[in-house]
């Protein structure tokens, strides 16, 4: 009797979870779900592009593939690390809980550096995409070729590579990092898989923030040029109903795509204002990475829903899956114009 009484009561030993713990776990779960869904969608769209590359607009497909690879890297590195971000004055630490901990803390630190590298590449890939759409409405169409597109992708990849090297080669003292964190937190992190930056000002973080903020200027400048060029064409030309519908759809797509970098910009501003101690450090722990995780879902969804060839491929693959399940004849992707990606 007594033993069963004590074993029953043992289940309830310990304080109940605090609001801080519940909120942190909830937001981390949301982040994992968003990145898991985003990874599936991006991999599926990549598969469709690879399988049907010869039937698509090659230049645009290369640019979209570059963006999707960065999306996949962002999701994979976040799912492998699953980190809790802790800020104490100028110190920033990451406590890792993901599968990377089965290897080592150093491996987790490298994956986190790759995550930042992919974020920088992603914002630069958006500049390439909006630049492509602007060029397609102007006389610069002849300048767009597969070789030049690959060259611009490599060029956009280099600044992120510099940041990656800086983060991977950054050295920190674990005892010193724990000592700095304990100025703000009473928790015991001595048994945690932890890495970070002892001082914001003596780390690669300022360079990373600049690389995430500055590209927004040319991105929105090109978005303005695209909108101005499109309005000019609509006023100057007499267009058919189909062409007018194409421009209307393209305007909606470009507006949606233009808003995507704002999700990443929100993360950067949260960290920046927390570093200046304008916002409490809990904002970093709760919201950093949660807002920008929406990008990984929205980017492939916009491509699949709004661009005709990708929408057509999605429908055909959906019918193919249904035909396999219901034993109907296979329905394959039909040959179409490579200009559909521009003409929607």
Automatic annotation (TrEMBL):
Membrane topology: Multi-pass membrane protein
Superkingdom of this protein's organism: Eukaryota
Record-annotated membrane-spanning stretches: 32-50, 62-80, 92-113, 119-137, 149-170, 205-226, 255-274, 286-307
InterPro entries named among the record's database cross-references: 7TM_GPCR_serpentine_rcpt_Srd (IPR019421), Nematode_rcpt-like_delta (IPR050920)
Keywords attached to this entry: Membrane, Transmembrane, Transmembrane helix
Keyword Transmembrane: yes
Recorded GO CC terms: membrane
SUPFAM superfamilies listed in its UniProt record: Family A G protein-coupled receptor-like
Protein location: Membrane
Keyword Membrane: yes
Family indicated by similarity: Belongs to the nematode receptor-like protein srd family.
Protein name: G-protein coupled receptors family 1 profile domain-containing protein
Organism: Caenorhabditis remanei
